[in-house]
């Protein structure tokens, strides 16, 4: 029987995925009291969520927030989520991704020891082993960035620090995109540049990195659906569980750009920018989500081409708003 929740806490609620998960959890648990951890000056995407002001790296503030929320479900999204950025910001990446998770786990152990905790890790933890074929949960980890190393460390720390009365669900999502993702990532960078070219704000030149790499892309809404299904299935899961979230169908960045280009209203040149090339980038990354499908019945329901059109329309709207201002 699906789990019901009375008090929900979301971290990372103002990031890319957070607003989508706010909507999904509010829809699934309309009677629950819902809290979102917010840094000073941030506001939740929905008025249905009560903000608790705390930076995830502030141990005392996190402790106070957990004491107030007393959650029976925690969805922990807060992270420095860019592998590329972590190359130049390793200390900040570890502080948020590992130390912030430690503060959260410690506070939960004291104030909400029976909570279900959904932790969003990353498929990047497989790293070099992604070259061996579709990654399963049993695939050894071989992280190649501070981002991935901080995430795998947080996975093991959470399993240790959370009490055995807590239920930990670790997810390793593969690449996902959609409206709201920022320009540090390839697909929104493409879409934002195209939107700027269409208005004439940018010259008809699109800067890219390595377009030959193939990635297991998902629509963010399908990833959030997986999160919602997993927390609903929590009573049937072991106290510590791990799930990949993947389509199993890798697509090249060149395919993704070609799809966006076909939607564009102006022609443009494609230029490889050396600054956008990532060291140690692996050619193909694809995952096996058989375990997730078996546990929840999940399957992607949004097409990648439609997601790309939505992404481009999002950046067109951003351009229109900028012109009005």
Automatic annotation (TrEMBL):
Domain NAD(P)-binding: 9-310
Top-level taxonomic group: Bacteria
Pfam families found in the cross-reference section: GDP_Man_Dehyd
PANTHER family recorded: DTDP-D-GLUCOSE 4,6-DEHYDRATASE-RELATED (PTHR43000)
Record's protein name: Epimerase
Source species: Methylosinus trichosporium (strain ATCC 35070 / NCIMB 11131 / UNIQEM 75 / OB3b)
């Amino acid at each position: 029987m699906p789990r019901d929740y009375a008090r929900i806490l979301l971290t990372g609620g103002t990031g890319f995925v957070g607003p989508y998960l706010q909507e999904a959890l509010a829809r699934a648990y309309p009677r629950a009291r819902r809290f979102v951890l917010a840094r000073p000056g941030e506001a939740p995407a929905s008025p249905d969520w009560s903000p608790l002001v705390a930076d995830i790296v502030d141990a005392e503030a996190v402790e106070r927030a957990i004491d107030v929320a007393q959650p029976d479900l925690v969805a922990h999204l807060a992270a420095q989520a860019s592998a590329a950025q972590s190359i130049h910001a390793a200390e900040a990446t570890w502080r948020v991704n590992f130390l912030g998770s430690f503060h959260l786990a410690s506070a939960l152990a004291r104030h909400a020891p029976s909570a279900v905790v959904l932790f969003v890790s990353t498929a990047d933890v497989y790293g070099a082993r992604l070259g061996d074929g579709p990654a399963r949960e049993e695939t050894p980890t071989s992280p190649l960035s501070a981002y991935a190393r901080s995430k795998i460390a947080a996975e093991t720390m959470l399993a240790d620090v959370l009490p055995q009365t807590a239920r930990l669900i670790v997810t390793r999502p593969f690449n996902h995109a959609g409206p709201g993702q920022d320009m540090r990532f390839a697909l929104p960078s493409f879409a934002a540049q195209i939107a700027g070219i269409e208005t004439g704000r940018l010259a008809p030149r699109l800067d890219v990195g390595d377009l030959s790499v193939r990635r297991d892309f998902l629509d963010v809404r399908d990833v959030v659906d997986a999160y919602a299904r997993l927390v609903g299935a929590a009573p049937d899961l072991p106290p510590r569980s791990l799930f990949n979230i993947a389509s199993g169908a890798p697509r090249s960045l060149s395919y993704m750009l070609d799809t966006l280009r076909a939607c564009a209203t102006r022609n443009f040149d494609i230029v490889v920018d050396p600054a956008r090339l990532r060291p140690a980038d692996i050619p193909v990354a694809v995952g096996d989500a058989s375990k997730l499908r078996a546990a929840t019945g999940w399957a992607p329901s949004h097409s990648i081409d439609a997601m790309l059109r939505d992404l481009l329309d999002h950046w067109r709207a951003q351009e229109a708003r900028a012109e009005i201002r």
